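Case study: DUF2125 domain-containing protein.
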Amino acid sequence: MLLGLAVLLYVAYWAYAGLMLKRGVAAAVAAQQAEGVDITHGPAELHGFPWRIAATLTDVRARATPARGGWTWRTDTLTLALRPYQPHVVRVDLAQAPHRLSWPAGARPFTVTAQAARAEVAATLAGEGRLKALSVAVEDARAESETATAPSPAPLPATLGRLTVDYRHKALLDPGPRDVTRTLSLALDDLALSPETRLPLGPDLSTVRLEAAVLGDVPAERAPMDALRLWQVEDGRARVDSLTVAWGPLRMAAAGTLGLDAALRPRGTLDTRIAGFPAVIDALENQGLVRGRDATMAKVLLGGMARPGPDGAPRLEVALTARDGVLWAGPIALMPLPRAPWVSPGAPRGVPAVQPGFSIDRDGTIVPDR
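Here is what the predicted structure looks like once written out:
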């Protein structure tokens, strides 16, 4: 009798949780639509009884308004699932079908089609649906992109061995500028891009490892630009506890603190240990990112600062500093930093973008509009 009642109650709970999952999907779609992203999908099919509560969506499509970037995304199938004993953790399986993502890039859209042997996202939700934690796991992924300028676009292949991301949000009542509000761990292995990408250090990124924390509050309820500006005004920082990179000739380990300047450009210093820097400088010169005379000076001065590593090759310990849109290696201005997506495209390198209500006069001074 009691066993039968327990089974009946569990079946009722499973059905109720499944209904809540479907309602959660509908609420998320409505919230995105209010933000300028229109999402459509076929009927949500519930399955997974008794140990999982899963909803499989078919013909999933998303389209952003021009103000939100004008991108589109489509996949034939994806599955959202949760476990009855962890109803606050939603898992999304993205590996069941290819994904096609397009966004404007001149006269023709730039399109990427991707699929992976494994692609999973797990989101841990707090009260009112706020994101508390997020983990991503991707393995054996392949993508093909189409150039936006070629008359007959040719696919540009890319492969990824492994990517894992772990993000945590710490909810504090009144976080100060030195309180840790978010943490991030990232591991990437064997990213191979097409040579057509013409990246400074080659198309193959062997390894990236990152352990970092965000200090200060980045208001999640604000628009991204407003949130970044508020974080900058409150002197928020990103603490890089550990960063290791193996990319082409570069072998680098770094740690330090970064922030944003008034123009929302990166600023701060990373203490680094670098091997392979002569070949890195040559590669930057070949790409036109460093002028010939600057490359020669950098190799001479940095070479004098280097010391032999365990393998006998020169190893450099130097502070890399981002300041005023320029990357400095110790006392040497190495190269202009790539323009961040949020920096005003009309602002020349080294000149801050200004807030509404201000202008830059002919002498380069920021003055209020009259």
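For the exam, be able to explain this: The chain has a mean pLDDT of 84.
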